[in-house]
Amino acid sequence: MSRRYPDASLAESACGEGFAQVGAIVERARRAGALRADFTLVDFAYVLWSAARIIDATRAVAPHSWRRHLGFLLDGLRTAAATPIDEPPLTADQLRQSMVSLGQGEQKLGSRSASAGPGRR
Fold first, then answer.
1. What's this model's pTM, rounded to 2 decimal places?
2. C-alpha–C-alpha distance, residues 2 and 11, integer Å
3. Coil vs helix vs strand at 18
4. Number of Cβ atoms within 10 Å of the Cβ of 112
5. Is the CB of residue 30 less than 8 Å from the CB of residue 21?
6. What does the H/E/C string look like for the chain?
């Protein structure tokens, strides 16, 4: 499920294998009672997306500040911190569509930045 290159079969295969491995970890943590019962693999993708955005935004000024954000996220995923969430998780197809859309948005931003020239965004 590569969001930048959605048609790249090798990348998609590797992502699928990675998601399967993460899925096994998520399931094991749920069974052990360490992870909230309603956490899904799609929710894991959200955690990655949010962390990636923070890393990008703070890289130059505070390159390790993402650790604080991740700490808050992980604390909120623990069973003891769980509260009911009314919104259901995305389906696998909705996740894929979202990833493709995000990748297309990044490509558009990149082409606008490149065409604007130095210092002209």
1. 0.64
2. 6
3. helix
4. 10
5. no
6. CCCCCCCCHHHHHHHHHHHHHHHHHHHHHHHCCCECCCCCHHHHHHHHHHHHHHHHHHCCCCCCCHHHHHHHHHHHHEHHHCCCCCCCCCCHHHHHHHHHHHHHHHHHHHHHHHHHCCCCC
Q: Which two tokens stand for residue 23?
A: 């899925």
Q: Give SS3 for 38.
A: coil
What are the tokens at 1? 């499920």
Interval 51-85: pLDDT, tens: 898 898 899 989 998 898 888 888 888 989 888 88
SS3 category, 96? helix
Residue 47 has what DSSP assignment?
A: H
* Interatomic CA distance for residues 49 and 47, integer angstroms: 6
